[in-house]
């Protein structure tokens, strides 16, 4: 699978998504810059600059010594900072045109895919449990994910960790915009299901 397919088919995380409806039959979901992501970008950029400065200082005495480790790891942190700062992802549902446009990119590099929206479809709410790790005696907890499958098209999917209400609300919003039915396939844990 190509990088473009991986990026375009990855579900949009509802916990970091802005959703707007600028007109009838039009819904736009955009991944937003979170505070945690911004902190990560700043930390990686600072590490990149410190390592580049250290490599430059060492290179005045011996350029070969500047390569390891400072000169080799500095670009790595720089690339992570750029990806975090300029990465974007958006899903636009245009019902009157019967198309959804999925875009993702980093800086000037942008991928786009147009997906035909079927007249009738189903939005499935799917429960997924990711088991925690028990490696080296330290246990990490399991995480509950609620995924939205829109008309069986992987490009149109959404996901959210541990927030079933957010998944159900988004399913209802998409169903109202697209005119699709909802099929709640999450496990029976005492929560009332959405009625079709």
Task: Outline the structure in words.
The chain is an alpha+beta fold. Helices cover 36% and strands 35% of the residues. It has four helices and ten strands, in the order H-E-E-E-H-H-E-E-E-E-E-E-H-E. It has a five-stranded mixed beta sheet with strand order 1-9-8-7-10, with helices on one face. It has a five-stranded antiparallel beta sheet with strand order 2-3-4-5-6. The radius of gyration is 21 Å and the shape is elongated. The mean pLDDT is 85.
Topology of helices and strands:
Elements lengths: L2 H6 L3 E2 L3 E7 L2 E6 L3 H25 L3 H24 E8 L4 E8 L2 E8 L5 E9 L12 E8 L2 E9 L2 H15 L2 E4 L12
Parallel strand pairs: 1-9, 7-10
Antiparallel strand pairs: 2-3, 3-4, 4-5, 5-6, 7-8, 8-9
Helix pairs in contact: 2-3
């Amino acid at each position: 699978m190509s990088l473009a397919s991986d990026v375009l088919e990855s579900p949009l995380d509802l916990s970091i998504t802005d959703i707007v409806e600028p007109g009838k039959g039009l819904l736009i979901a955009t991944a937003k810059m979170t505070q945690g992501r911004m902190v990560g970008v700043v930390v990686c950029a600072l590490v990149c600059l410190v390592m580049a400065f250290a490599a430059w200082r060492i290179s005045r005495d011996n350029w070969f010594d500047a390569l390891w480790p400072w000169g080799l790891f500095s670009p790595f942190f720089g690339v992570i900072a750029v990806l975090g700062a300029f990465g974007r992802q958006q899903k636009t549902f245009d019902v009157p045109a019967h198309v959804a446009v999925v875009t993702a990119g980093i800086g000037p590099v942008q991928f786009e895919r147009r997906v035909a929206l079927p007249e009738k479809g189903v939005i499935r709410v799917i429960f997924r449990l990711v088991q925690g790790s028990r490696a080296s005696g330290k246990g990490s907890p399991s995480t509950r994910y609620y995924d939205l499958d829109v008309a069986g098209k992987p490009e149109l999917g959404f996901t959210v960790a541990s927030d079933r209400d957010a998944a159900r609300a988004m399913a209802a919003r998409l169903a109202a915009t697209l005119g699709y039915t909802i099929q709640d396939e999450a496990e029976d844990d005492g929560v009332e299901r959405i009625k079709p």
